[in-house]
Write a structure and sequence with these properties.
heterodimer, A: 384 residues, Butyryl-Coa Dehydrogenase, subunit A, domain 1, 4-stranded mixed sheet, 8 strands, 14% strand, globular, B: 329 residues, alpha+beta, Butyryl-CoA Dehydrogenase, subunit A, domain 3, two-stranded antiparallel ribbon
Chain lengths: 384, 329
């Protein structure tokens, strides 16, 4: 066991650090609206032009083809530089694109991958439905084959940034007469197609990130089905593997800088003598160190085994709970300033309120615990 | 950067695990005869023979040339098996003696001729002695860090009923004239690292007991592990174990390589591992129901040992205060 990065990795770190220093946007990321979308697009494009887009993607699809360790270094330097949240590029860059890379046809790859990396194509996720959240496989959005098209009717919900998206990773039921996991297809839905209607849903964190999406006789070419008709559940598992495995690495790494900023804030406000508070902060500091150690352990396992396993659910759960505790302690630190709402990326009320989503999105804490119980510990499958 | 075990590390862990689970199973009968840690003490000579006392010392100091990582992995197994704190005391004492150049005392500990107990302040001018009866050496945990004192250097020794009934406990006063060998600046961190490793192992042991119980125990016609009210707290136990073990590994490497942040990483390991050990033991008692509350079922031994280790070398509150101070620096 060791903590040393290779000379090659250290050189890489220097390059990343330098590039981010020279290129990260100097203005803050707008919290919302077309200005935010434009900001995210431009920042993605600048990363592409600099040769830093898709650091985990294979080089043949325009990525950097970097090791998981180098991805970690990228995220560490990204957090250190205070570079902006990935925003509306999250789905395309971190799990939609990667899903196409492993499961898509050559035609699908060449149609989308480069555009995603260039910030020319925004993606969103169409998995959850009003009646299918944790029980995702019970989804009911119907797609009927009509010639060389699918005709889609139904509704999706909790779709982040749907109002800015050009395409969607959409799960539809293509065979209603078989077992619920077997009749699902993963399709690329053009968000500008006739019959697609998006309604933003405000969130408790104050930003209209969420949406619901309605489909009214939306025609999608059969050539947009990824991984084969009625084979969508396994494709969706690939998507969730990317989302849960490495998709949140950046945010996990960022928590370390958040706790240091909160400790500095505590000093600035003259509260470092409040032992009740400082002991909570010390515990947080220790646990964030453990979070980083878990990240290292996950990467070590990943480098040996090749793919993230169910252990990533432990990291995800630990991070979510820790981020929430940090948020709550931050309210204690800032006192009456908790009365003032901040943007989600700015200190401290916005991030605190946003932290409530961290044990819900990408699989709730309850679902993560079930995965850990059954797939890490081998407990008997729940009757549910 | 790699937190997976090397082949050497795997071998040490496997050998230790096999020996301890055969010879020192965590079962009521190991301690029921009233002689605290008698079975463990009988094993101390064998531990010495296996080289466990000097595992982390360089060969030039009578050791085996492994490092703190191998040692931490060994103590994780010792924590799982609730091995007497004498092993902990003897390893830390041997390092102190060897580092101070007291070769005779070091080698008699390393070779297993002598053993060390632990002395911690009792808050009243005296100290508590842990598994110290008949021990030739004593690891004294004072404000500045651990020091080595002859076992004979105490007076007014009187046995006290121990909360952790797997160890022998006394009250005593330290002779003012007792000759001591002070630990070096890394001795306190060494002690805390091994304690953190033991706590992580203990947390894993109760997780495994509870998971096994949930796979066997049937109520309402089902294995209770199918109920989320049972399986989810066990998943939380697993997460705490994962965090504690990962942080112990990082701390061990940082200590071994004398990295700048070694002291902080060790403190963090101790804080996270103590929380894992105590929280897991508490959940384990609850999830075993009435069985968990009996003396005959071994979960309570883990709970009590975690509280005991918390009192050796700075309790949770001290660790947190130091950790906050270090975070500022």
């Amino acid at each position: 066991m060791d903590l040393d990065f290779s000379a090659e990795d250290e050189l890489f770190r220097q390059q990343v650090r330098q590039w981010l220093e020279d290129n990260k946007p100097s203005e803050p990321r707008p919290a919302d609206g077309p200005a935010m979308a434009e900001f995210d697009r431009a920042w993605q494009r600048r990363q592409y032009d600099g040769g830093w887009a898709g650091i985990a993607w294979p080089t043949e699809y325009g990525g950097r083809g970097l090791s998981t360790t180098q991805q970690l270094i990228w995220h560490q330097e990204y957090a250190r530089a205070g570079a902006p949240y990935i925003g509306i590029n999250f789905v395309g860059v971190l799990h939609g694109g990667p899903t196409l890379i492993v499961r898509g046809s050559e035609e699908q790859k060449s149609a989308h991958l480069e555009k995603i990396l260039k910030g020319e194509e925004m993606w969103c996720q169409g998995f959850s439905e009003p009646g299918a959240g944790s029980d995702l496989a019970s989804l009911r959005t119907r797609a009927v084959v009509d010639g060389d098209h699918l005709v889609v009717n139904g509704q999706k919900i909790w779709t982040s940034y749907a109002q800015w998206a050009d395409f969607q990773e959409l799960l539809v039921r293509t065979d209603p007469d078989t077992a619920k996991h077997k009749g699902i297809s993963w399709v690329i839905c053009d968000m500008h197609a006739p019959g697609v209607r998006v309604r933003p849903i405000p969130t408790m964190a104050g930003i209209p990130e969420f949406c619901e999406v309605f489909y009214d006789d939306v025609r999608i070419p059969l050539s947009n089905v990824v991984g084969g008709l009625n084979n969508g559940w396994s494709v969706a598992m690939s998507t969730l593997g990317f989302e849960r495995g490495t998709g949140f690495m950046g945010e996990q790494v960022r928590l370390a800088t958040d706790v240091d900023r909160l400790i500095a804030e505590t000093h600035r406000r003259g509260k470092a003598r409040d032992q009740g508070l400082t002991r909570q902060l010390a515990r947080l500091k220790a646990e964030v160190a453990a979070l980083q150690a878990m990240t290292y352990q996950g990467i070590s396992l990943n480098e040996r085994r090749g793919t993230p396993g169910p252990e990533s659910s432990m990291l995800r759960l630990y991070h979510g709970l820790l981020a929430q505790r940090l948020g709550r302690i931050s309210m204690e630190v800032i006192g009456q300033d908790a009365l003032v709402m901040s943007d989600p990326e700015e200190e401290w009320t916005g991030p605190y309120l946003y932290s409530f989503s961290r044990t819900i999105g990408g699989g709730t804490a309850e679902i993560q615990r079930t995965i850990i119980a059954e797939r890490v510990l081998g407990l008997p499958r729940a009757g549910r | 950067m790699d937190l997976m075990l090397s082949e050497d590390e795997e071998q040490i862990v496997d050998a230790a695990k096999a020996l301890l689970s055969n010879e020192l199973p965590v079962e009521y009968r190991r301690w029921e005869k009233g002689a605290a840690s008698a079975a463990d003490r009988a094993m101390m000579a064998q531990f010495a023979e296996l080289g466990w006392i000097a595992l982390g010392l360089p060969e030039s100091k009578g050791g085996f040339g492994f490092g703190a990582t191998e040692e931490a992995l060994l103590f994780r197994e010792a924590g799982r098996a609730l091995v007497t704190p004498r092993l902990l005391a003897s390893v830390v004492a041997a390092r102190i003696a060897a580092t101070a150049g007291d070769t005779d005392r070091a080698s008699s500990l390393i070779e297993g001729h002598q053993q060390a107990g632990i002395a911690v302040p009792d808050g009243d001018g005296g100290c508590f002695l842990i598994d110290a009866d008949g021990a030739a050496e004593m690891l004294v945990i004072a404000g500045a860090g651990p020091a080595l004192v002859p076992g004979s250097g105490f007076h007014d020794r009187a046995p006290v009923r121990s909360t952790d009934e797997t160890v022998h406990l006394e009250r005593a006063k330290l002779d003012s004239v007792a000759s001591s060998v002070a630990g070096d600046s890394r001795a306190a961190s060494h002690l805390s690292l091994l304690i953190a490793a033991m706590l992580a192992g203990s947390a894993e042991a109760v997780r495994d007991l509870t998971a096994a119980h949930a796979c066997e125990r049937v109520q309402f016609g089902q294995k209770i592990g199918t109920f989320q009210a049972v399986s989810h707290p066990i998943a939380d136990m697993a997460v705490r174990c994962e965090a504690a073990l990962a942080q112990v590994k990082v701390a061990a490497i940082a200590f071994r390589d004398e990295r700048e942040d070694a002291d902080f990483q060790v403190m963090a390991a101790r804080i996270v591992a103590l929380d894992a050990a105590l929280s897991n033991a508490q959940a384990a008692v609850q999830l075993h129901g009435g069985m968990g509350f009996t003396a005959e079922y071994p979960v309570h031994f883990h709970l009590k040992r975690a509280h005991l280790l918390d009192q050796v070398g700075g309790s949770m509150a001290d660790q947190l205060d130091r950790c906050f101070a270090a975070a500022v620096a």
